[in-house]
Amino acid sequence: VVTLSLLMYPVLRSLALQLHSAITGSYVSGTHSIAFINCLNEQIAKDIARAIMDKKLAAYVNIMPKSSALYFWKGELEESTEILLIVKTRTSKIGELSNYVRSIHPFEIPEIISLPIDQGNPLYLKWIEENVPRD
């Protein structure tokens, strides 16, 4: 029973958040998230962004210009330029988004990091909700 309860927690939390939001009309912190995904170049970034949008895994994707990056890879310090995707979506879609991006991304270990949205313009957050289908 405890194991089943733990496995159901994300589903139960999602339903509770939806109910709270519907009753109060207020935004529940963490309902939406921003994901950061680094790409090797602009073409790959555009291809991944379009694929994310085609699958309706996000409402909005920014493609940020080149930035310099320093990182350790296989024990060596590397330096490169990368393009950053900033993805706005439902928190409930982060797992699916991450799995999908890993399946199409050319990096062996793509950077996919998400942060919950605490607060924001209520109309914008509602717009995200309207453009990313529920699970």
UniProtKB/TrEMBL annotation:
GO terms for molecular function: copper ion binding. Keywords: Signal. It holds the Pfam family CutA1. GO terms for biological process: response to metal ion. InterPro entries: Ion_tolerance_CutA, N-reg_PII-like_a/b, N-reg_PII/ATP_PRibTrfase_C. Coiled coil: none annotated. Residues 1-16 form the signal peptide. SUPFAM superfamilies: GlnB-like. PANTHER family: CUTA DIVALENT CATION TOLERANCE HOMOLOG-LIKE, DIVALENT CATION TOLERANCE CUTA-RELATED. Homotrimer. Belongs to the CutA family. This is CUTA protein. It comes from Phaetusa simplex (large-billed tern). The gene is Cuta.
